[in-house]
Amino acid sequence: MERYQRQTMLPEIGEVGQQRLSAARVLVVGAGGLSATLLPLLAGAGVGLIRLYDGDRVELHNLHRQTLFGVDDVGQPKAICAQRALAQRNPDCRVEAHSHSLSASHLPQALEGIDLVVDAADNFAITYQLSDICYPRGLPLICASVLGRKGYVGGFCGGSPGYRALFPQLPAASGNCNTAGVMGPAVATLGAMQAQMALSVLLKLTPSPLGCMIHCDFVDWHVRQFRFDDAPEPDASGIPFIDRPMLTEDDCIVELRSVEEAPVSVAGQVLRILPQQIAAWQPPLDQRVVLVCASGMRAAQAAENLAARGVTRLALMAANTL
């Protein structure tokens, strides 16, 4: 126990708390900037098992913020590099590395035996999928997102409201690190806060970070916190995200990206309908309509239009997460 002596000194942790961490099984989705700080802190604290999913490979432009990796890792799968780095930091922590993205059909298997989920993918489509499956199972979910020098971290589900209670619908538009840029210290700060929230949940510390949202603004140097314990869940469960294995022969698949943007779609037979054409399109009444775009945002907007016209059998696909 010498490794953990400085944290077991805390009366709210002690040996009992350390045993809880050792027995804990945490699912982490994403091995990028947030996880560069999050993962070493979870492993360092003695979390027993981390199940890690990420389908990307390390690129040179990642290194300014994804400090878990080095130049020698460029070109290699992030999940495997992270597993190797964490083994050097604490062999007591077992890391299951999965070098593919976590999509809808894999979620039930990924959650087997898991005590807590950490969303470090910084991707709205994944966040909604995780919340939709964690909420009915009572699994706590810690989410964070960072852009530029601003971000947030929050605790959802696990007896508290889900992500849709605060954000019933996907945003109409949103930038990402690839399009709008981000500063490394901002990402590291939010990743550290995710780790603190995750450990606090596993240790059953009070007050719980579940039902709590913290906004960090490193432009104007504001940190704001609010609780949403009583936020009502939406009446409707929301339009689900699916992936390729969940498509059926009877689906009407609508590709919202142009041929120039996506020469190859998610299936052999799709309808190419641009978002601005959806309002004039007459959907079939006897098929499920599956709306496809890169991030899921255009698909969500198109689904909102169709739902307002009475279409009830709808599903979304975010091609960038497949």
Automatic annotation (TrEMBL):
What CDD domains does UniProt report for this protein, alphabetically?
A: ThiF_MoeB_HesA_family
Name the Gene Ontology molecular function terms of this record. nucleotidyltransferase activity; thiosulfate-cyanide sulfurtransferase activity; ubiquitin-like modifier activating enzyme activity
Q: Which SUPFAM superfamilies match?
A: Activating enzymes of the ubiquitin-like proteins
Where does the record place the Rhodanese domain? 274-320
Q: Which GO terms describe its cellular component?
A: cytoplasm
Q: Which UniProt keywords apply?
A: Membrane, Nucleotidyltransferase, Transferase, Transmembrane, Transmembrane helix
Task: Output the Pfam families linked to this UniProt entry.
Answer: ThiF
* Coiled coil feature spans: none
The portions of this protein that span the membrane are 26-53
Protein known as: Molybdopterin or thiamine biosynthesis adenylyltransferase
